């Protein structure tokens, strides 16, 4: 079978963030793409767990989503908590509308947008739990392309649906062409065979259709059709009503939904309704007590989940007198997504966090969360203060009442650390900050060691210990490191330089142990074009 793919200029390349919030093209093995950035703890808010276990809590991360997702998938302390364990990813990336909003620009070159999304979706795939799902909020700007990209990343078979969200409550009479009423939310499962949505609560209008004319002890019920169009081998037979009337069979070209034997069983159990005079075509009694809730549908009107202006009103109520964040989503929209895709205690991730709506709603709904936002200004002005208010029970708006939220819990605020590398004239050097314990932590992250503080060792990976030397590795260093190894252990020694004999001696004293030089041996490519 042929495979449809989307191609674009630069698809085989990668991007790095630039200081102005834009992107620059680089080869995929550029050290700034392959390196794993550290997540540096800034502070915590409310109740958080033991600091030696930094991942037991919710995380607000300031920095680029690529670096944050890369760290969550690769640094062992985070990967053990998040890789393959995130139940829901909701993202509302810049739509590429070509506009410059107050708090961020939304005008990337088309191929830059696709590459930016592809590289983050690949990391998101690694983070999703086997029964997880990813929801991507879009408008028309990229709606024709993003599903093809997501087919490539998640597999076409894992496409679930496109939700249409009615985002405005009145037409824009100033529209040049048509006034657009809706956004899209694309839903993909990690595995559509496994993922199942939670039913929505039923509405009073839906329940009003249920009655109990025969005073059944099982409570109110609604008649359901016993005739179907779908061909069914056992579905054609005559039926005699309790009044004695013989119905020769289902209407021509149609079928009873159940076999004759099953109809008899249902009737004996009082589950068949023959009408007030016991003379009608049979109907199945569907009891309200037995229906599971409302199956989620794809059309989400603003009357049910809010509109753009309700999102803005929520932010304005929290930050009185300030220019509101440009594009906040209404809390009820996120409440519905989170309800359908998670259970209490599950992990929800949003790596284009904006004003923090996803995290705020996840917190109020008793889910764990990770949210990432690139702009430090947005984090300081909106995201962090908003989440502080949620923790302190000082946010009475949004879904607070519906979720009976009154405050509690907490979160850690971390930020993506600087690059380990400085680049001058195309050559790669270690950054000036990379000394002492900072260097050790950074090297451990690059090589996938869990950090430990047991000098001379700075990391462990199974029976392997990592020793990072902020200087030259010579014979004396090798002997000192090997002397501290336990039975059956080996070591990876990383130094900024090494004498020619040190590697040979290490191999002799501890076969299987290795000597590496930083940055040279950490790089796929030592020269940057
Ligand atoms: C449409 S807004 C999200 C709004 C959010 N759903 C809310 O309710 O407030 C997109 C956000 O993504 C942020 N962003 C853009 N590029 C990013 C990146 N590479 N990493 C992390 N955040 C990014 C922007 O700064 C902006 O705040």
From TrEMBL:
Name its GO BP terms in alphabetical order: methylation
Q: Where is the signal peptide?
A: none
Q: Which InterPro entries match?
A: DNA_methylase_N4/N6, DNA_methylase_N6_adenine_CS, N4/N6-MTase_EcoPI_Mod-like, SAM-dependent_MTases_sf
GO MF annotations, alphabetized: DNA binding; N-methyltransferase activity
| Pfam families recorded | N6_N4_Mtase (PF01555)
* Domain DNA methylase N-4/N-6 positions: 86-382
- Which Gene3D superfamilies does its entry note? Vaccinia Virus protein VP39 (3.40.50.150)
Record flagged with keyword Phosphoprotein: no
Q: Which SUPFAM superfamilies match?
A: S-adenosyl-L-methionine-dependent methyltransferases
Q: Does the keyword Methyltransferase apply?
A: yes
Similarity section = Belongs to the N(4)/N(6)-methyltransferase family.
Its name, as the record gives it, is DNA methylase N-4/N-6 domain-containing protein
The source organism is Tersicoccus phoenicis
